[in-house]
Design a protein that fits this description.
Blueprint lengths: L2 E2 L8 E2 L6 E5 L4 H4 L2 H11 L3 E6 L11 H7 L5 E6 L4 H11 L3 E6 L6 H5 L3 H8 L4 E4 L14 E6 L5 H15 L2 E6 L6 H16 L4 E5 L5 H10 L4 E8 L4 H5 L3 H8 L4 E6 L1
Parallel strand pairs: 3-4, 3-6, 4-5, 6-7, 8-9, 8-11, 9-10, 11-12
Antiparallel strand pairs: 1-2, 7-12
């Protein structure tokens, strides 16, 4: 496992580790609870612990008061509940992940305001900005899978840049653990012959390492919309995206392809903070 020095206050990026625990932050809202379903699907596949976390908001008096009832209603044995009586939720989540490597946060974004204004300066931003492990995000348009089918595929979004290698390493790691098919998608239009060849070569290398993999080129003038339309056809999938840690999260989530995808995606997004 290689460590890379962090920049501008970021923790170092750590090569992918095994998924040891799922952490789902709850605040009593329906939006936050929407992250339970995808987290449960992963936990059941791997038979790893799943922890529900709520932090009492002393300013607004907001927290998940019925967290014990929620845990009791979930069809899973390896469940834990943590109620933290003070502190800011962003810091509590980051510290909890740091204390136990292999913890994957599954959380949602809220839709109480314009999406871009909400994410910037929020708990979501802080967690994505500070946690070195991948974070599974559920956006406002996420559609729960009511069939209970486990994840079957990961759609790995590539743009031909240096961060592609990071997303491929993490996607391969998750594919081995969850038995996922990998679908590599060029997400920066228009594609070039070089980018298509690179994508095809990456899929071939993954196949040689024992994974089911294929490459796909999406058409259309709007990369984000093309990805969203592809996700509409992949109900049993998750998507893999890489953030731009070195320029700061607001620039990543505001006015970008990733921002629109996160806002309108019907499937969960595994977001990786690249070095």
């Amino acid at each position: 496992m290689r460590l890379r020095l962090g920049r501008q206050g970021h923790p170092p990026w750590v090569g992918p580790s095994a998924i040891e625990r799922l952490l789902v932050p709850l605040d009593g809202s329906r939006e936050a609870a929407s992250a339970l379903e995808p987290a449960l699907r992963i936990a059941r596949t791997l038979q790893v612990p799943m922890e529900l976390l709520t932090v009492y908001d002393q300013v607004n008096g907001r927290w998940c008061q019925n967290i014990d009832d929620i845990a009791a209603d979930l069809p899973y044995e390896h469940l834990g509940v943590s109620v933290v009586g003070s502190g800011w939720a962003g810091d509590v989540i980051v510290n909890t992940v740091a204390e136990e490597p292999g913890t994957v946060v599954c959380m949602s974004t809220h839709n109480r305001d314009r999406f871009s204004r909400l994410v910037a300066g929020s708990v979501t931003e802080h967690v994505l900005h500070r946690v070195s492990e991948p974070v599974l995000m559920v956006g406002p348009c996420y559609r729960p899978d009511e069939t209970g089918v486990l994840f079957e595929r990961a759609v790995v979004c590539q743009d031909g840049g240096p961060r592609d290698a990071v997303s491929l390493v993490v996607a391969e790691n998750w594919a081995h653990q969850l038995k996922l098919e990998l679908e590599l998608v060029h997400a920066c239009l228009p594609p070039t012959a070089r980018s298509e060849a690179s994508l095809s070569a990456a899929a071939k290398r993954l196949e040689e390492r024992g994974l089911a993999a294929r490459d796909v080129v999406v058409d259309g003038e709007d990369p984000a919309q093309s990805l969203i339309e592809l996700f509409e056809q992949r109900p049993g999938a998750m998507a893999v995206l890489t953030s731009r840690a070195r320029v700061g999260l607001p620039k990543f989530v505001l006015g970008s392809v990733s921002s629109k995808v996160l806002e309108y995606s019907p499937i969960p997004l595994l977001i990786i903070r690249a070095p």
